[in-house]
Known about the structure:
Blueprint: H1 31-38, E1 58-65, H2 73-86, E2 91-95, H3 103-106, E3 115-116, E4 121-122, E5 124-126, E6 130-134, H4 150-163, E7 169-175, H5 182-191, E8 196-201, H6 205-221, E9 225-236, E10 243-244, H7 251-259, E11 263-269, H8 271-279, H9 291-304, E12 360-367, E13 370-371, E14 380-387, E15 392-399, H10 408-415, E16 420-423, H11 428-436, E17 440-443, H12 450-459
Parallel strand pairs: 1-7, 1-8, 2-6, 2-7, 8-9, 9-11, 12-16, 16-17
Antiparallel strand pairs: 3-4, 5-6, 9-10, 12-13, 12-14, 14-15
Helix pairs in contact: 1-4, 2-9, 4-5, 6-7, 10-11
Amino acid sequence: MQSEEQHTGGCSAGCSSGSSGGNTQQGCSCETHDEQRDGSVAAQTFGEEGPVKTLGHIGSKLVVLSGKGGVGKSTVAVNLAVGLARAGRRVGLLDVDVHGPSVPRLLGLTGTRPMIGEDAMYPVGWRNNLSVMSLGFFLPDPEQAVIWRGPVKMGLIRQFLTEVRWGDLDHLVVDCPPGTGDEPLSVLQLLGTDAQAVIVTTPQGVAVDDVRRSVGFCRELGNPILGIVENMGGYVCPKCGELTPLFPAGGGEALAAEQGVTFLGRIPLHPDLTSAGDAGRSLYEADAAHPIVRALAPIVERAAATLHASDIRHESTPGPQSEAAPGTGKTAATMPTAPTRNESCAPATNHPDTNGDTTMKIAIPVAGDVLCQHFGHCERFALIDVDPATGSVTGRNDVTPPPHEPGLLPVWLSEKGANLVIAGGMGARARALLEERGVKVLIGAPAAAPEAIVAAHMAGTLTLGANTCDH
């Protein structure tokens, strides 16, 4: 069991004070445990927490919550974050469900460990535009129970919000545990009243009753409600596509009308949704015509609209992911493409990887004459110049990197003028440092010739796999 006297990177609240491995609260000097010792828990009660400053700009904060457990809240949060990332937005996904962190499993990140620096934690990368942080990354035993009281949980949430180096984000999606207790209270108070709630329910009355309290909870705290999602709104037959109601239909939509909030959409049950979650992948890895992906489309579109166009910091320029789909009049958020394909668009006069420049330089770590799977230990880098208007390679210059030192390669590549780095594997800190300098990163590329990788990238056909060196 993970008790309050055990430690994750320091004290049980996640702090770094005290000696490693086994400090008790009595030997810990962190603020959270000071409050526990002197009994002044009132500082953590309703109305006392204030907004905190995060490491990096966050454009839109979306908190996914529900008054009822078992309604599929984490599934909604994960697919909302993936959908926004697929639409070209830079997204962070924070899992604050201390007692049941399921996001690592849903995204196939079980067993992954984030990088911890002296003064910051670095989120785990998933695909190109999505970074993830969860307590689940820090639990050494999947059967280990976390037994923490409110102040300790609030200390961890505060640490996640203030010490995770997300970089600049268009959207931060937070997956809260069910109810209106410590975790959602802390999240909304620490993020401030501009954080918007996405409330998840199922159609039956017993769930709607509890979710109704979530609406009142958000209003009492002064946080706007983006809308209500009705999950499990019927069963889709995988053979014929017929939708069969399993519960009295329309409970979520009726609640939205009763409370005067937006009804975001209805997500049906489908066997593929269960198998995808168990396999650690998103259904966005199927196709845009999948009934679950189509059901998610208006929810993602509404969430994407929470960020004003002038505030979008990483959105791609128009291409297959942002052009209106024929006959739909809808943007990329409603018509995602298959995520096993490269996120970049086809050649255009203003390719998204050029950051508005008229030239494009792609850096690829190589060993022999194929991509090296270890970014920091390659023989050399192939710096390939590309004409973004035609997608054609105009030149190649192989350069030997400086001796390997932490944090040096990202600065060096930025100074070499790289717009994009395509690698097989890369640590979280190196990726964060590159992105801080405006250099885009693609991870999980195959061991192939650099020119072939660039050609596939420019054509939008580059297949990306897992990060082979995520440390």
